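WARN retry 2 of 3 for item q-0093 after timeout on previous attempt; input resubmitted unchanged.
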Amino acid sequence: MTTALDQLHADANAIFSQALAACDIAPAFDRHIRFDGKTMLRQASPVLKPVVTPLDEYKRVLIISFGLAGLSMMEALLERLPKKISVRGVCSAPELPKKRNWRIKYFEGGHPLPNEDSFKAAAEALRLLKKARENTFVFFLLSGGGSAMLELPRDEKISLDDTIAFHETLVSSGATVTEINTVRKYFSAVKGGRLALAAPQSQKLTLLLADVPLKDLGAVASSPTLPDQSSPQQCAEILERFHLLEKFPQSVREYFDALNLPSKVDTTQDACAQEAFAKSQFETLLSNHDFVNAARDHAQKLGYRVIIDQAPGVNGYQATAISLLTRFHELRQEHPKLCLLSSGELKPDMPEEHGCSGGNQQFALASAFELANYPEATLAVFSASSDGVDGNSPAAGAVADPTTIARARAYGFDPETVLTRFDACPMFTALGDVLVTGSTGKEFGDLRLLLAQQ
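OK item q-0093 returned
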């Protein structure tokens, strides 16, 4: 027999899955781009005339696609491009395609940390771009996770192992995503606009799947094709505030020391850079905003009063749980059937020695302790990642309710130790409350749902 709590669990999973389905990549291409013969028509706005690009005027078309949705975006564009256009490209994504297009070089880039294929993909992308001239049109297809999946240090002496340690140090430093990306831009040969700078003479179009608010588009993949809006002084301040230099491997520390950041001149504003960015255009195909709105729409269909929490998810999972639950309890006094919806990434707050979990499952477990104070209430907290991967676990996320802690103890788990050890996945799996989707080929950030029903 389905209980009221079972129904909340089912509703949470349905809201998440329907939001993902509504944000399908192929239809998004069709809404923004279409081809009339070899002419590309870009419909940036329903009220404006389409931007016309005759691709037959170009000798070659390059496609550089990377990120958690890198393969989905590459396949969507290849299906729509006129067949007789000369295409070459690079795709770095979490998995390789079952059927490869011979014109594209595919790489299985690492995430959340770069791997050998991340290096190879970046080197191949730069090789192709540096050969591009005025007769080449370049598509950049960017999605979240691209910071790790396409990576190469500016200093060739820095090894892959040291690059991985550099990324690990940044992610665990307590810095925000924006601050982490600022430091990455000064380290990387492909971030901070450097992919666009590699082909200054070519016309370029960046198509984005944004897992961040629209005002923060520079955060997607650490801004490889947008002008860098940060300053050397900002980078130096972040390095100092989080004591990062002393934590970096020696080769990385020596590299940053040699940069002399506070007095470094910003070269992204020179004549060559201005030419490269003047020939660059940008289009957002889908965003976190679309994902959140799709979740809202389905929750409303299920009869919930939906309220969207606009606070950015840049705090740790425990602070976010306290903040959202406080607001949730206030709101449900007014709205008996309530869905408080929140999005954005959470800082993992992961200890050096940890188990199998991710920020979403940790958030659900932290919330479960508080929900246990309402044993008779019909409440649930759901949190999952739109890319299908939560931290180092095979799950996308989990759902908790007022019975979670008691059920966990009955199964022999110590929930306090599980939370401290960052090891929530085995516990939620045993309870049957983990969400496993596999890689979704999409990335719009995390989705948190706090549901109440009287």
